[in-house]
Amino acid sequence: MGKQSESSAKKRKISKKESPCPIKNYSRKQPAVDALTTSYNEEVRPLLDAVHRLRQLKIMQEGIQLPTIVVVGDQSSYVCVRNGIGSESYEKARESEEKLFMTHHLLSRIDKSIAGIPVLAQKLMQIQAQSIAKCLPDIEKKINEKLNSNLSELEDMPQNLLSVADAMRASIQIISKARETLKKLLIRGEFEDYPNENKMHGTARLAEMLDDYKNDLPADFPTKGSFLVEEIAILEEARCISLPNFLPKTAFITLLQMKVKEISGIPHHFVLKAWNYVEYLVLRVLEKEAENYPSLQACTRSAAQNLVEKMRRKSRQAMKEILEMEMATNYTCSRDFTDTWVELMEGQGAFMDVIYDHSKPTKINIKKIGQVDVSHLRGKHEGSAEQAFDTKMRLISYWNCVVLRLVDAVALHICKAVKILVDDEFENEIINQVIGSKQNEIEKMLEESPTISEKKERLQKSIQLLKESKEVMGMIMNRISVNSSD
After folding, report:
1. Phi-psi region of 222 (alpha: psi -120 to 50; beta: other; left: phi over 0)
2. CB-based contacts of 194: which residues, under 8 Å, 6+ apart?
3. Per the domain annotation, does 130 fall within a domain?
4. Average pLDDT over residues 71-78
5. Which residues form the domain of 104?
6. Does 274 reside within a domain?
7. Please, what is the end-to-end C-alpha distance for the chain in angstroms?
8. For position 15, what pLDDT does the model report?
């Protein structure tokens, strides 16, 4: 028993002697740990704190993404370390690692600047700091851009109107601005306000509609049934007691009126289509200019619709008068009519030969018409065929003049009507209806709409958040600059 107790006491003494050793060794390693901690606190922690602060400010709600930090290593260099074995403590592992790199016959040759856990930790901190710092300039740029955008948008928001006079002044400014925009779109052909909306390019769309209208009009004189049947029927009914071989003007006018009536729906359809488009354009412009005042939007929309409808009625009446003028008489000063008629009449002799000579084929080619069958004209209609042919050729020659006038007159009318709408009628009519008969609508403008209030509040909150974020970024970027210069 005595020996055992003595042995135990000896072991305890040894333990007491050995126990300070790890403490002493640990304290020797502590400066390395302190240096690592200091480096972390100075280089990495501020960057992480800045990102965390931005995340707390909810900067990501402004569409600005923050970096997600994941350190995966760096292939540009390497660090040699000793892995911990079993459950050995950090202090024990550090001791063993240092001893290994000091005493091993091969590992001791490794440069101490690339060996050991502290070196690895320092390397990883540098990678982490560089990764974060690389993202920060872009984040700072996006914050500044978003802040400037929101400040500009808030400045463009309408100010609260304090009196009816202010509301009237704002209404007149909105209507005047809308008129100027319409002048650009419908008269001058400028579309910088709507560069990517082709439907808002007024002059181009109206020109397209005019081209479609021109193509819808029959370029050739419309004909129904067998060749010259219509002309012969009308000539029979237009006969009177008079000298022979004189074409009755009534027959020509009657046939002309019939054909003009057949195509009369085309100009009316074009005018309706054009004014529907102008109305769409006017309403879109007014809606955009008055978007901050819903009560004014509704009022100007109604006034604009009334104005366009008035112009539409005038255009319908103008189309009616243009068509009536074409049906009233036959006249043109164009030499093309005479030249074309003379050219077409050169085929009258060959045509009459086929009519009288029954031995010849019944089909014949006629200029401007093509191949026709004349078998139905032989015998009974031989006497009136010559006058019918002359009348037909005159109508074909004259039809070019009719179509040209219908295109030119309608095009000039619609251009003039649109110019009158924008330059003369728009501002006065809208202002008179909005201010003159809608005083209550002006008073409603004094009440800021909930939509505008919510938008202002949202912008103000966003601006405050971005300003705080800018301050955070400013401090950290200054710190990075100072560290870089050091």
Report:
1. beta
2. 185, 200, 201
3. yes
4. 47
5. 20-158+465-485
6. yes
7. 70
8. 38
Same-domain check for residues 115 and 188:
no
Residue type at 393?
M
Residue 451: pLDDT over 50 = yes
For residues 109 and 214, membership in a common domain is answered with no
Residue 446, class by beta-carbon neighbours within 10 Å (0-12 exposed, 13-18 middle, 19+ buried)?
middle
Question: Are 331 and 434 found together in one domain?
Answer: yes
Distance CA 482, CA 467 (A): 23
Structure tokens at 301: 């929309």
- Count CA within 13 A, CB hemisphere, residue 39: 18
Q: pTM of the prediction?
A: 0.67
Beta-bridge partners for 373: 363
The reply to whether 194 and 231 lie within a common domain is: yes
Q: What pLDDT was estimated at residue 6?
A: 43
**Residue 122 sits in the same domain as residue 191:** no
CB 367 within 8 A of CB 343: yes
Measured CA to CA, the distance from residue 243 to residue 247 in angstroms comes to 10
Does residue 359 belong to any structural domain of this protein? yes
Beta bridge partners of 364: 372
In a domain, 100, yes or no: yes
pLDDT of residue 246: 79
284-343 pLDDT, tens digit per residue, is 999 998 887 887 888 889 899 999 999 999 999 999 999 999 999 999 999 999 999 999
For residue range 399-419, list pLDDT tens digits in order: 999 999 999 999 999 999 999
The total number of residues written for the chain in this structure? 486
- Note whether 119 and 251 are same-domain residues: no
Domain identity same for 102 and 180: no
Contact 127, 69 (CB under 8 A): no
DSSP annotation of 186 = I
Radius of gyration of the chain (CA): 47
The sign of the torsion formed by the CA atoms of 228, 231, 233, 238 equals negative
Please tell me whether residue 366 adopts helix, strand or coil conformation.
strand
Same structural domain, 247 and 152 = no
Q: Name residue, tokens 């020797």.
A: 28
Among residues 65, 47, 45, 69, the alpha carbon closest in space to that of 138 is found at 65
Beta pairing, strands 363-366 & 370-373: antiparallel
- The total number of structural domains that make up the chain: 2
Q: Is residue 239 within a helix (H) or strand (E), and if so which, with residue range? A: none
